[in-house]
Every structure is written in structure tokens, then in C-alpha cells.
Specification:
The complex is a heterodimer of chains A (125) and B (324). Chain A is an alpha+beta fold. Chain A is flat, with a radius of gyration of 20 Å. Chain B is of the alpha+beta class and 324 residues long. Chain B has two domains: 122 residues, 2-Layer Sandwich (Gyrase A, domain 2), CATH 3.30.1360; 150 residues, RNA Polymerase Alpha Subunit, Chain A, domain 2. Classes of the chains: A alpha+beta (125), B alpha+beta (324). The interface between A and B is large, with 51 and 52 residues. Chain B: One of its GO terms (biological process) is transcription by RNA polymerase II.
């Protein structure tokens, strides 16, 4: 009766106006803000955190998944100075990761093609 | 753009059901994301709805429906021998525009086995023995979709049954049902998980301190080699020193025996270690084993595409935030 929907962990609840990302500025720390990613978990959280920390203009980046049964993460970012906003560093981090994934797709395709050519696997694939 | 990495991939071994590869020059977070996506977010087909017309078997409807759900359903595109990625070939049923279901978002299977009918085709000695209904009895309405079966005829011959056993029936019993398979991800239910195993290990960096090794006698060197249960070290026949075994990366399990034993062998406590074994932070050995729904390489590829789509979607959402 009170069981959550089967889709609760990955589909946005659009009926109740849920959006993917909600941003709020930090009220106490300058150049900082928290992103709430709905329907995301450690997969994306840790990926973004580690990529953000590679950026020298990021002073702090951390994420929190409050409980296994809540389906959102909070990602907090603080930048070095007011010229770069947290939204901008996040945007460039995602762009880097998207490019890296693109690169990985071509690398993987090449590697499997080469392997098949070198190891005569006729009929197997 | 300024902080992008350019990872490399090297295939170690590849078969339809299993593959091993090295992912290097990237971060643990990327390796872990790929692993987690392969386990939980690669879409596959699985039976999700079952209509029972007659069930006089000993198992109740729910029990059989659950068992049907767990049967791996393989999508094999026309003119292909590969278990392919069903993402794109099918639509997630919640996104499909059809009223209830249609061939674009679902595949129907019919199953109708009556003991007494099937019994007439059986040999004399097994005439009254129970009959096993298997996944072979599921008749698909789509030529490209069928329950996953044995890799080879040899495997089939060694097996007891023709397919995945569903239920056994006896005289007078019948099972008749219609099963609907849909596309989904393992975050919803683990029956949609395409992998049996998806793991990575860290590449071991084995450093040998030649200067320190030179102070040891041959017996002592042998002692160091023998203390490691994984046998990652061996005597270098050319130089008489110790070297890492060629397959050390595969055998290494980071036991602490070597580390502890070395302390007892040192002349002074503050001396450097003879051999250090450390986990690499940017090189990973992946093992991916498929359940049979699609080829291992397709699972990795599909996982990467899922990640790409997700990142593009999130990038767009972040752009929207900027405009606000």
C-alpha cells in the first residue's frame, strides 16, 4: 500500500514538479553553492566530485547521498574567487567528462576491432 | 576543456560471454562509474508481465511469473551472431506512445505445454516421468528476441535440460500463459541486469630496490620470494637479483606477508623496503561476464553510451540553470 513506485530511483516525478537539478547559493560561505541532483547516486556524484577537484579554481567540492532510500545527491562547490561561479566550473567539468567518454568510446571500439583482427576469431563474433 | 583526460583501453581477452581489459590513464571515479553503470543502468529485456490462462502445476502463478522474469532474454539483430544492445531497437515502455503495448516496446511470448500431449512424443521408459517445462517452450512473436541459451552444442549436450527450467508437470497438468518482455534497467529490478560479474582491480606497481637487494644473500632472496603466497617474485637469472614475475599483475592480491617479512630482514628499522607493492591509481583491470543477454563487449559499449547520454543531459540541465 505504501510501497514506493518501482521507478522512484531513476524516473523524475514530473507530476509533482520535480526537476533534475536545483541550485541554491550558500548563505554563509562566499562563492559557494549546493546543487541537488534528483534521481542520481554515487555513480554521478563521485565522478563529478573527482573531476571538479582537478580544476584549480575549485576550492571545495564534495557530495552527499543522505540515505540509500532517498534518490538524490547534494553536490557542494566552492570556487576560489567571485569571477567564476560554481555553475560554470560544474559546466566545464561535465564537458570534460563528456569528451573523455567520447574518447573512451572510440578507444574501446578501436581496441576491440584490433583484438579481433589479431586474434583470428572467425565465426565467434 | 582544460582538465580532460585521454584514457586508454587494452583488451586482454575477449569471448562472447566474458571479457577482460585494461583501462588506464584515468581516475578511479571513472572506472567505478563504468562498473556501476554496467551493473545497474544498461537496458536489457526481461519478462515483466504474465497473463495466466491455465496453471495446474504445483507452483502458484506468482512463483512462475517470478521465475519467468529471471530468464535472460537475448536480442540478436538480423544478420548478426552477436547478442546486441536492445537500447534503440526497443523503446522503454513508459516512453512509448502506444496505448498499452506494441511491438516497439514489448515482445510477447506464448507458452502452452500439456503433459498428456507432450507425453505421446516421449520414449517408453520415461513415459510417466515428470515433464520439465523450460525456456525452450517460450515461443516469441519477434524473430530477433529469444531466451538466452547455451553457448555451444557441447554445453547443451552436457546439460540435463534443454533450457532454463521453469516448472515440472505431471499427468493431467497443463501450463498455458502469455508473457510480455519489456526493456528496463537493473535499478528497477535486478532481472534487467546484463552482467553476472562486472569488477575492476587495481594494477599493482611492483618496485624493486636493487641497492637493498644487493645486500642480501641468495638464500635470503629466495626466502623473500617464497614468503609471498601469490608468488609474484622470482630470481632474475641474468643479474641474480629479484624481479617481478611476468604475470605478477594477474596474480597479485596485495597480501601483507611480503611487507611484514621484510621488516624482520632489515639491518636497521629505517632502511628502505626491498620490494614494495602498491596499487596503481590510474590503471584498472576490468572483468565483465555476461548473463547471456548480450555480448560482453556490447555491455561495455552500451554502458559507455548510457554514460555519454547522461552527461549530455546533465550538461543541458546545467546550461538551463545558467539562464535562470
Amino acid at each position: 500500500m505504501n510501497a514506493p513506485e518501482r521507478t522512484a530511483s531513476f524516473l523524475l516525478d514530473e507530476d509533482s514538479g520535480e526537476v533534475k537539478i536545483v541550485y541554491s547559493d550558500d548563505t554563509k560561505v562566499t562563492n559557494a553553492g549546493t546543487f541537488r541532483f534528483n534521481k542520481e547516486d554515487h555513480t554521478i556524484g563521485n565522478l563529478f566530485r573527482m573531476q571538479l577537484l582537478r580544476d584549480p579554481s575549485v576550492r571545495f567540492a564534495g557530495y552527499l547521498h543522505p540515505h540509500p532510500l532517498v534518490y538524490y545527491i547534494n553536490l557542494k562547490i566552492q570556487t576560489n574567487n567571485s569571477t567564476v561561479a560554481p555553475v560554470e566550473v560544474l559546466s566545464s567539468a561535465i564537458e570534460d567528462l563528456a569528451n573523455e567518454t567520447d574518447h573512451l568510446i572510440t578507444q574501446f571500439q578501436e581496441a576491440t576491432d584490433n583484438w579481433k583482427r589479431e586474434n583470428d576469431t572467425e565465426g565467434q563474433f | 576543456m582544460p582538465h580532460q583526460r585521454f584514457p586508454k583501453v587494452q583488451i586482454l581477452q575477449m569471448a562472447p560471454h566474458e571479457m577482460r581489459f585494461i583501462l588506464s590513464e584515468t581516475d578511479t571515479s571513472v572506472a567505478n562509474t563504468l562498473r556501476r553503470i554496467m551493473i545497474a543502468e544498461v537496458p536489457t529485456l526481461a519478462i515483466d508481465l504474465v497473463e495466466f490462462h491455465e496453471n495446474s502445476s504445483v507452483l502458484n502463478d506468482e512463483y512462475i511469473a517470478h521465475r519467468l522474469g529471471l530468464i535472460p532474454i537475448r536480442y540478436q539483430p538480423v544478420d548478426s551472431l552477436k547478442g546486441g544492445d536492445c537500447n534503440g531497437a526497443f523503446l522503454p515502455h513508459r516512453e512509448c506512445v502506444c496505448y498499452e503495448r506494441c511491438p516497439r516496446c514489448s515482445v510477447e511470448f506464448e507458452l502452452d505445454v500439456t503433459f498428456d500431449d507432450a507425453n505421446t512424443f516421449r520414449s517408453e521408459e520415461e513415459l510417466m516421468a515428470p515433464l520439465t517445462i523450460t525456456s525452450k517452450d517460450l515461443k516469441s512473436n519477434n524473430d530477433t528476441v529469444a531466451p538466452a541459451h547455451f553457448l555451444s552444442q557441447d554445453e547443451q549436450d552436457e546439460s540435463q535440460d534443454a533450457g532454463v527450467a521453469i516448472v515440472k508437470i505431471g499427468p493431467g497438468q497443463r501450463l498455458k500463459l502469455k508473457a510480455i518482455a519489456r526493456m528496463g534497467i537493473a535499478k528497477e529490478h535486478s532481472k534487467w541486469c546484463p552482467v553476472a560479474i562486472a569488477t575492476y582491480r587495481f594494477w599493482p606497481n611492483i618496485t624493486i630496490n636493487e641497492e637493498q637487494i644487493a645486500t642480501l644473500s641468495m638464500e635470503q632472496k629466495q626466502e623473500i620470494i617464497d614468503v609471498c603466497p601469490d608468488r609474484i617474485l622470482e630470481i632474475d637469472n641474468v643479474t641474480g637479483s629479484i624481479k617481478a614475475h611476468d604475470d605478477a599483475w594477474d596474480m597479485c592480491t596485495y597480501t601483507e606477508d611480503l611487507q611484514e617479512f621484510q621488516q624482520t630482514m632489515k639491518k636497521r628499522k629505517e632502511d628502505d623496503d626491498f620490494v614494495t607493492v602498491e596499487a596503481s591509481e590510474d590503471r584498472f583491470i576490468f572483468t565483465v561476464e555476461s548473463t547471456g543477454v548480450m555480448d560482453a563487449e556490447e555491455i561495455v559499449m552500451s554502458g559507455l553510451r548510457v554514460l555519454k547520454d547522461r552527461l549530455n543531459f546533465l550538461a543541458q540541465e546545467v546550461e538551463n540553470l545558467k539562464d535562470m
